[in-house]
């Protein structure tokens, strides 16, 4: 199990789009191929990476804009985490956990040769589920904290809607709660 390489279980023909593709084309391709991401390549060279979340972000942040007018390259991250086909599955899991990514492009000699995802690993070795489940929990907690930070608005003193204590209140998820209840979220 320790000697299983990324190359052994990666998706060998990931769904790709050209650098000139727009977000509408990316979304359409994701739906057609039933995948959650597309890789932007030019002659097998990795240029970018678009996920369903990127498309949703564009829809919500740029209300009323036509997705066919947004180039995928314009919202793709500039720095993309990659992995070598010679890395082990354990190394792939470790990298995914530390970066909070669910998939990594596989690059060999500066060319895209595949994609490894948490799903690929689980399909091959279900016993890795506890490690990947921990990754999912960490990611969920991180997202939860980000939501709390965004909704963190101080209000005057009052009574906490959660515990009933009196003190300085914060608006979190539409409720007025004290600092101790906010920290327990």
Notes on the structure:
There is one protein chain. The chain has 185 residues and is α+β, with helices and mostly antiparallel strands. The protein folds into 2 domains: 6-142, Roll (CBS-domain), CATH 3.10.580.10; 153-183, no CATH class. It contains 8 helices and 8 strands; from the N terminus they run H-E-H-E-E-H-H-H-E-E-H-H-E-E-E-H. The protein has helices spanning 6-9, 23-33, 52-61, 72-75, 89-99, 118-124, 129-151, 179-183, and strands at 16-17, 37-42, 45-51, 103-108, 111-117, 153-159, 166-172, 175-178. It has a 3-stranded mixed sheet with strand order 1-2-3. The chain has a 3-stranded antiparallel sheet with strand order 6-7-8. Strands 4-5 form a two-stranded antiparallel sheet. A hairpin with a 2-residue loop joins strand 2 and strand 3 (45-51). The protein starts with 5 loop residues before the first helix and ends with a helix. The model has no long low-confidence stretch (mean pLDDT 84).
Give the arrangement of secondary structure elements.
Blueprint (H helix, E strand, L loop, with lengths): L5 H4 L6 E2 L5 H11 L3 E6 L2 E7 H10 L10 H4 L13 H11 L3 E6 L2 E7 H7 L4 H23 L1 E7 L6 E7 L2 E4 H5 L2
Parallel strand pairs: 1-2
Antiparallel strand pairs: 2-3, 4-5, 6-7, 7-8
Salient structural properties:
185 residues; CBS-domain; 2 domains; 3-stranded mixed β-sheet; flat
